[in-house]
Each structure stands twice: as structure tokens, then as C-alpha cells.
Amino acid sequence: xxxxxxxxxxxxxxxxxxxxxxxxxxxxxxxxxxxxxxxxxxxxxxxxxxxxxxxxxxxxxxxxxxxxxxxxxxxxxxxxxxxxxxxxxxxxxxxxxxxxxxxxxxxxxxxxxxxxxxxxxxxxxxxxxxxxxxxxxxxxxxxxxxxxxxxxxxxxxxxxxxxxxxxxxxxxxxxxxxxxxxxxxxxxxxxxxxxxxxxxxxxxxxxxxxxxxxxxxxxxxxxxxxxxxxxxxxxxxxxxxxxxxxxxxxxxxxxxxxxxxxxxxxxxxxxxxxxxxxxxxxxxxxxxxxxxxxxxxxxxxxxxxxxxxxxxxxxxxxxxxxxxxxxxxxxxxxxxxxxxxxxxxxxxxxxxxxxxxxxxxxxxxxxxxxxxxxxxxxxxxxxxxxxxxxxxxxxxxxxxxxxxxxxxxxxxxxxxxxxxxxxxxxxxxxxxxxxxxxxxxxxxxxxxxxxxxxxxxxxxxxxxxxxxxxxxxxxxxxxxxxxxxxxxxxxxxxxxxxxxxxxxxxxxxxx
Amino acid sequence: xxxxxxxxxxxxxxxxxxxxxxxxxxxxxxxxxxxxxxxxxxxxxxxxxxxxxxxxxxxxxxxxxxxxxxxxxxxxxxxxxxxxxxxxxxxxxxxxxxxxxxxxxxxxxxxxxxxxxxxxxxxxxxxxxxxxxxxxxxxxxxxxxxxxxxxxxxxxxxxxxxxxxxxxxxxxxxxxxxxxxxxxxxxxxxxxxxxxxxxxxxxxxxxxxxxxxxxxxxxxxxxxxxxxxxxxxxxxxxxxxx
Lengths: 511, 242
Known about the structure:
Protein name (chain A): Lactate utilization protein B
Structural class of chain B: alpha/beta
Distance between the termini of chain B: 30 Å
Number of domains of chain B: 2
Strand content of chain A: 5-15%
CATH class of the largest domain in chain B: Alpha Beta
Shape of chain B: globular
Largest interface: A-B, 86 and 85 residues
CATH architecture of the domain at 11-163 and 201-301 in chain A: 3-Layer(aba) Sandwich
Radius of gyration of chain B: 18 Å
CATH architecture of the largest domain in chain B: 3-Layer(aba) Sandwich
CATH superfamily of the domain at 11-163 and 201-301 in chain A: NagB/RpiA/CoA transferase-like
Number of strands of chain A: 12
Keywords (chain A): 4Fe-4S, Electron transport, Iron, Iron-sulfur, Metal-binding, Repeat, Transport
Shape of chain A: globular
Oligomer: heterodimer
GO biological process, one term (chain A): lactate metabolic process
Structural class of chain A: alpha/beta
CATH topology of the largest domain in chain B: Rossmann fold
Helix content of chain A: 40-55%
GO molecular function (chain A): 4 iron, 4 sulfur cluster binding; metal ion binding
Strand order of the largest sheet of chain B: 5-4-6-7
Largest sheet of chain B: 4 strands, parallel
Number of helices of chain A: 23
Largest sheet of chain A: 6 strands, parallel
Distance between the termini of chain A: 56 Å
CATH class of the domain at 11-163 and 201-301 in chain A: Alpha Beta
Helix content of chain B: 40-55%
CATH topology of the domain at 11-163 and 201-301 in chain A: Rossmann fold
Domain 4Fe-4S ferredoxin-type (chain A): 304-335
Number of strands of chain B: 7
Radius of gyration of chain A: 28 Å
């Protein structure tokens, strides 16, 4: 593993590196701003975005609830189309299957299109260890492969690099100086990859969606490289997360509406390929042999878990990264896993079931809910982050000092007299530290806060201390309430009573 | 009808003026607020950190405090939203679960109560300043409070409301996040204040003292003169000076 996408250290340590890298932060801001405003325009222009979003959520909920059925259907149909279907429980099994196929084919080189699952199981490293060349053909993936890094964004893997850094990497690859001009740089990569496409023994892809009713797989892309990967080499291997299924092509229409708009603000990507089996005699092109490896790697552990099952609804659009105010500051590598941003902060610990790691990543969120608001299938990531934190505490992996602090908090807040007394004592205790009615002290828990801020002081008189006087004063000059206002309040009360009684009857009728 | 004030621990201890403004504004409209003193904290700090037993301890004081209220009004969208987690927290304690459902249905954030319940958008205030508004995340996203504060601000005479760039981005507070992930939080509040400065507003207004405490702290740290106010304070000042 390379240092930038290493899981070593804490998220705080990794974030510190990013926070001190202005190139990275500017590059991330520049591109996420473009993507999120693109999404805003595309979803507004769509007109019925919220209804389609709900439809998308329902399709994903239904599919995941019946995943066994739809997976079976998909596998049966894919096999009858002539596809070799394999199952991999984990990353090792997935790479073993790929290696077996590569050996059978005596493959020397593999050309890949963008696939997060292949990053997740670290297929490139496995291939290279066996002396098989693995080349990424997506421009962003090619760049990070040259840099020896993992993706720092689900959709834009090299989002953290600016064009000058990219020109430097590509110049080194080319052995000549390339101007930092996007046309020149893309032109170089195109020429270089053309040769690699022609030489490759195996084309390897991911899978955006798998259609159960016909056993087909669907890829969304903009560069045309995935289409080349699935047409030029004689053998195709597709790595597919086991949850990528949708029941039908009609359902795909909803996903095709949600995914590109959410990811890049496009109405549709430049290419959308639907592939149903290997090349037939009537086909002009396509692989002679096609394999689909269905990867579990921790996904099935979410099934039946009421707090995390919805994670499997994710369509990997990256919209949650683009709106995340934390991702914006620290970029993707700080998350320490293949998946970054809010979805990565939940997915990485959930897939690994690594309790010790949980608090670390899940704590790097202000729980602002922007991810949930942006998600095209409404995954409640902000709630899942809290669930991760709670499970860590429940299993005794919480920070000892924090646990002590929280017990103190509960003792204090259990009783209002104690709370009132604490406020009075606090006023006395703060005195030596107050300067110009603020606290500037950079010690203990105030250190982090006051590095960026001046802390406020406790009020001279708390609200509860002022209450008696305040209420006597306002009661002494009572004003009459506007009858229209009173009527509105009575209506709200009546509606509430009505809702309560109907929900009660509703509950009984089910029993 | 009993309308009770859920002051929130932060406003009680640090920003009592916000509570006073709410009490006086509503009294002027014939609504005498009630203040049940047994209330302490909604429990959000421990809830968000994953300590739910501790949360229940604090939450019980809130459930008991407002048992007999018809309406509960709070100066914080975030603490109001915390009440919405109570049914989940007390799902195994039937007597508290009933209270939790009831409290959830009758608790309102301040502008929600003014606009949605009372139907008041013009409070008769004047405030001749350039103002920008930061929509706090929990109130705007999770409670859906988007139009209410804007309607109230648009009716204030002389007030010039300037849009805040990247307004919907979190200010970086996030409770214990600001302490645990101090540098990330610091970077977030720094960017928020950069945007506030771009507006050249004289006043920053919001609906959540926790976020405003965070932003005000960074403004002060940088020696900026922007005044930071809760909307209740702004409206009350706008009514008082007329």
C-alpha cells in the first residue's frame, strides 16, 4: 500500500497531512463545487427529483430485501447467456478467481476500466505480484496508478491532484515534458492506452448495475474506455459487488436518471453499455469468454441489520462526498479506506466489522446531514455514523476519558438543582480565565477550541436565575391574544388529538 | 393553553438573552410562556457520541418537565430535533415512550412556532442593518425549517438581507466533534467566516446558539466586528427600538 491511502494512523493524523496541503484542498474544493452545483442544476431541471429519489429508494429497498431471489435470478439468466458466474466471499477469494482465469488464459496483461470493487479487493497488486501487467484505462485511475495511490473519490479518483501535478506525473511516464494542458495530457494518455488495449489479454470491469431479469450488466462512463475494455480483449472479467442488482430494465431507467445527475450533473453519461453475455456469432465485437465475479466481502453482514442494511442501497454516485464539509477540508485519503467521504466513513467499518477502527473514522463528522440530503436513494448516513459510535461504546471500545466525561455529564443533567449549582460554581471557577468577557485559555479541552476561537463565558445570571423576575414583569402587563392566533393554536391541538386517535385505531386494526 | 419554554442548557447558561427575547416577544402577542425548572439538557452531546444510557438520564428531565404542556418552544433547531430521537431511545420503556411520542408531536423550534403555528411573519420590528443568515444544519435539513426565518426577516423594516455564499455548509460545530476533531472543525469554521466576511454584513443571524457560538468565537479570534445574534434577539431588539 502507498502512504497516501494507507490505513495507518488515526483519521486525525491523516487529516492533518491534508489540512496542511493547500494544493489538495484547492483541487478538492474546485472539483466538488463544480460537481455539486452541476447536480443542483440537473436535479432542479429534472422537475420531479424528490419523487424519483423516493422511487429510487423504494427500488433499492425492495431489491436488497429480496436480494437472494434477485441474485439467483440474475445468475441463472447470466449463465444461460453463456457467462461464467463465480462467487467470492472475500477479497482473497475474488483475487484467487481472477488469478485462476488469468493463468488459464496465460495472460500477460490486463486492461481495466474504473471499478471500486477492484480497488476494494486490491486486484492490481495481486496481478502485479504474479508478473501480470494491470493497466487502468480510466484517465483518473491511470493518474493515481502512476502516483501509486488509491482513489480519493468514488467517481473522480484523482480529484486531489491539480493539472500541474498531473502533467508532472504524465511527463515522467512519457519520458518527455508535457505541457499542463488538458488536451495535450489526455492526448498522450489516449495514444499510450490505445496500444495497451490492443495488447491486453483480459479486459476487467466493475459493474454499476446488474439486471436480474436478463442477466445483463450495465456500465456508465464518459471516456469510452469501458466500452473498449468490453469489446477488444478476448476475455472479460467483471467484478461486481453482490448488491449491484436491480430487478428489471424498467428499474434501470430510474437509476439511469438518478446516477449521472447525482454524480456529475449530467443527464446521462457519454456512454452507457448494457452487456448480456459474451460475443455471439451475429455480434461484430465483444469478448469470446465472459466471467462475472460476485463479491460479498462483508456486504452480506449488513443484511438483516436494521441500522446498516440500507448501506447496500448505495449506487456509488459520490454525491455525499461532494457536499460533505469535512471531505471538502480533508479529501479522500484521510478516510484511510477504498471508499471515502460519508459513505466511506460508514462503509469501511461496516464491511470490515472492525470495532477498534469504528470510532476513529465515524468521529470525523459534524453530523450535519448534508450527505443524507444529497443521497439519491436517501441513505441516512448521519444516523449510521451515530450508530457506529454507539456500538463502539456498547462494546467497551470507547475512549476511557470520554466515557468518564459522559458519566459526569449524566450525573449533572440528571437533576436540575445540580445543573443550576454547577452553573453557579462555574461562574466562580471561570473568573481567573476571563479576559474581555471571553476565555482565551489554550489548555485541556479548550486547547482545540481556542486555537481557532475565543470561548464564551457563563452568563452572570443564568436564564433560570432570571426567570422569576422576568415572568412577573411580563405577567404584570398582560396582552390579549389575537383571536385568529388563538384559533390557529386550537386547530393545531385538535389536529394533534385527531392524529393521535387515528394512529391508535390504525395500530389496533393490525393486531 | 400552556406554552412552555425549552430553553436548552446552552442558552440557559451562556445566552439567557435569547430566552428573554423569546419570552418578551411572545408576551407582546398575548402568549405568556411557562418555564418548567426541572428541565436540564436534551442529551444531544452524549447521544451523538454514542452514550445512550447517559442520554436517557438527561432526556428524562425533559420528558418530565413538559408532560403537561400543550406546546413546547425552543430556540434551537438542533435540540428540537434531538426530541425526535426520544421514541427510539425509550422504545423499551413504555411509560417514557408515550411521553416521548407526545413531546415529539408538540415541540417546535422558535420560528416554526411563530410562523407555522401562530401564523405570524410580521412582528413589527425595524432593524436598519445589513444582515446575513446562516441556516443551521439540523433545523434546515432535518426539521425542514427553510422559509420561516426568511419570511420573518423579510418583514423587518430597514433590514437588508444579503445571501451568504455556501450558506448550507456546516459551520463545523458538531458538538464534541469541535473538540475531538479540532483542526477539521477549525478549518470548517474558518471557511464559514471567510464567506461571512465576503457578504460585508454587519450582523450574522441564526437559529441555533451552538453554531452561532462557534462562528462568533472564530470571528472574535480573528478580530472581526460582525455582530452575531439569534433571530429572537434581533426581532426583540427591532421591536424595542421602534
